[in-house]
């Protein structure tokens, strides 16, 4: 399914600044293997529609080899640790 947004839509990227420790063995030695993006509609700013592009990094533990994804702190931002995330405007 694909949604087209009209010109004038503001797109924000929610990027992960810090990869957490391995959920399996808690080793901090974790490598990024890539990422995919989850698109979410956010509250409009004024009359401008806003789309959030949340990065979902794919990671692999260097210690035990387990692969895992880092879910963005959505749809419950209050449960997140905001210091590990940054909202950036796309150029
Ligand atoms: Zn591990």
Overview of this structure, please?
The protein is mostly beta strands. It is elongated, with a radius of gyration of 15 Å. It contains no helices and five strands. The model is unreliable at 75-82 (pLDDT under 50). Strands 1, 2, 3, 4 and 5 form a five-stranded mixed beta sheet that branches. It has a domain at 10-52. A hairpin with a 2-residue loop joins strand 2 (30-45) and strand 3 (48-61). The two termini are 25 Å apart. Helices cover 0% and strands 49% of the residues. Bound molecules: zinc ion. Zinc ion (ZN) binds next to loops.
Termini Cα gap: 25 Å
Q: Which ligands are bound?
A: zinc ion
pLDDT < 50 stretches: 75-82
Shape: elongated
Number of separate strands: 5
Indicate the proportion of strand residues: over 45%
Structural class: mainly beta
Q: What is the helix content?
A: under 10%
Major sheet description: 5 strands, mixed
Descriptors for this entry?
91 residues; mainly beta; 5-stranded mixed sheet; elongated; binds zinc ion
């Amino acid at each position: 399914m694909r949604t087209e947004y009209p010109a004038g839509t503001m797109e924000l990227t929610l990027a992960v600044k810090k990869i957490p420790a391995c959920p399996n063995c808690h080793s901090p030695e974790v490598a990024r293997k890539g990422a995919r993006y989850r698109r979410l509609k956010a509250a409009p700013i004024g009359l401008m529609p806003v789309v959030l592009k949340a990065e979902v990094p794919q990671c692999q533990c260097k210690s035990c080899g387990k692969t895992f994804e880092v879910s963005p702190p959505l749809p419950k931002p209050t449960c997140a640790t905001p210091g590990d995330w940054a909202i950036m405007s796309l150029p």
